[in-house]
Amino acid sequence: MASAQSALELEVLAQTNQMRLARGLGALLWDDLAYEAALGHAQDMLARGYFAHVTPEGRTPGQRMAAAGVIEVTVGENLAYYEGFKDEGLPKKAVEDWMNSPGHRANLLKPDFTHLGVAFVRQGRKVMLVQNFLSRPFSPVLGRAPAQAQRTLLRLSGQAPGPLGVFLDRQLFAQVGPKLDLSLELPPGARLEYGLKEGQSWFLAPEGQGGGWQARLETAPTPGVALRLSFPSGQYAMAVGAEPRFWRSVTGPQTLEVTLPGTLQLLWLGRMQGQSIDYTHRIPLR
Question: Domain 7-134: which topology?
Answer without folding.
Answer: Pathogenesis-related Protein p14a (3.40.33)
